[in-house]
Specification:
Mean pLDDT: 94
Helix content: under 10%
CATH architecture: Beta Complex
Strand content: 25-35%
Oligomer: single chain
Number of helices: 1
Radius of gyration: 14 Å
Shape: globular
CATH class: Mainly Beta
Number of domains: 1
Structural class: mainly beta
Bound molecules: zinc ion
Length: 118
């Protein structure tokens, strides 16, 4: 596991996300939201994540109450992260591991939660 900060970015480079370390694991969830967004989620406390550049939030309207807002780059549309709808700091937020170089996930377990059944 890497303990040095790692930076990834959206496709156009306007949004940069720096995380404190390699994730413990990532989730490839099968729910409609995660599948639509292409998220491969790595989890961090909010103090471990730094995001620069403008993002646009999305809160799903088909679940009430929704618990989180997903964010994407308004220019290229890349899904960047999600945050709980409660105020900062967050003990757990999600970062799209697809923002990072391919070797970011070397040795990291991919889990396949059955989110569509939740
Ligand atoms: Zn972009």
């Amino acid at each position: 596991m890497s303990a040095k900060p790692i930076t990834g970015q959206c496709h156009c480079g306007n949004v940069r996300v720096t995380v404190a370390r390699t994730p413990d694991y990532v989730n490839e969830c099968n729910c409609s939201l995660c599948r639509s967004l292409g998220g491969l989620w790595a989890y961090y406390a909010s103090h471990e994540v730094k995001i620069s550049g403008e993002t646009t939030g999305y809160v799903r309207a088909d679940l009430s109450p929704a618990s989180l807002a997903t964010h994407h780059c308004p220019t290229c549309g890349t899904t960047t992260h999600w945050v709980p709808l409660e105020d900062d700091p967050h003990p757990r937020m999600g970062v799209n591991s697809r923002l990072f170089a391919e070797d970011f996930l070397d040795g990291v377990e991919t889990r396949y939660p059955d989110g569509k059944s939740w």
